Amino acid sequence: TQGQLQQALSRATKMMESFPSSVVLYNVAGASNAGLMQFDAAIDNYKQALTIKPDFAEAYNNMGVTLKNKGCLQEAIGSYKEALKIESEYAEAYYNMGIAFNEMGDLKGAISSYRQVLALEPNHDDAHKNIGLVLMENKQYQKAFEHFKSSNSKNSKYFLLKCLYMQGKKSLFYDQLDYLITQGEVHPMVGSFGCRAELKYGIARPNLFCKQPLNYVLKTNLSEKYDFEKIFVKTSKSILNEHRVKMKRQALLINGYQTSGNIFILKNDLTEEIQQIIRLEIKNYLASFKDSEEGLITSWPSDYSLDGWLVNMKSGGELKPHMHESGWISGSIYIKVPSKLTDESGNLVVCIGEDRLGDEGKQQEKNINVVTGNLCLFPSSLLHYTIPFESEEERIVLAFDVVPTY
User: What's the pTM?
Assistant: First the structure.
């Protein structure tokens, strides 16, 4: 907890007075700073440890993690490489380097790093899972399946389900789906693929997450409740215009960029009020559906974090259909929406499946007219995309996920 981290930092700082050359104390202080999101102070402590002990591989690794969390991915990779020069079989440094390469969009570098982990620790669950995720992103579903099968990481069983669905292996898919249902797994991915398979194959199964996800889409006008210009617009434009956070291309995003990393961690000081408002609106969302018997509501996580990023689109921009696989519910706040040339320009569409299959009489998507100041919340089991727009103005959206902290 924050209190424990603060206490650890205070103790380490106090003990440094008696033991000024203790690299362990500087390492503890750095880790505590990092946990408190005091990234610059953490890096200073790790550097101090390395001044005293230049071959302290753990400090280089920890500094790399902090630099990555700060959004300095290239510098983080450099720090991991320094750790590996000292300790060539440092599996954790290879693993963390894989994460940084992946965030940079260097999938080849990511896979290479994860394979180094597996050469040292063949049963490393998260390395298998992360290689699977990269392969899955490249539509190499069978290769991804083999890695997920080798991983006991919590989410691997859900990604196995996805690989089977995407390969059209109907019988094996339903075996895995039935297994997850009998295990009582309440998860957005299980809910999503249950709904999609029902559309595709016409075979219904109990849906423990959300049987009718389109009924749980909520749009709110934040402009009527808060000083939207000051709290949301100025903050978002400050982050984008002053290049406070690095940008990255995203395969699903056409004619646009998004910020790299979790903006709520990278810019916690700037976004604190925004986070408070989001959490309040999530409470309102829960209150709106308090009588629901869907697992989405009845199994609501006891604690969650927010993972957020800014999306900046130019004319012709669009976002392809996808779901947020780590979320419970997903949200989008419309910071700036250009004037519409057509009724549907730039609208958000939430949908059950990739294709309009199945019963024609059954609603399969919702087209949501969004304007500046709107907040949309919806179950993460739904796919969503945006309709292309034409304008000389840019379109800015703050997207986020409610991520359960298990």
Answer: 0.89
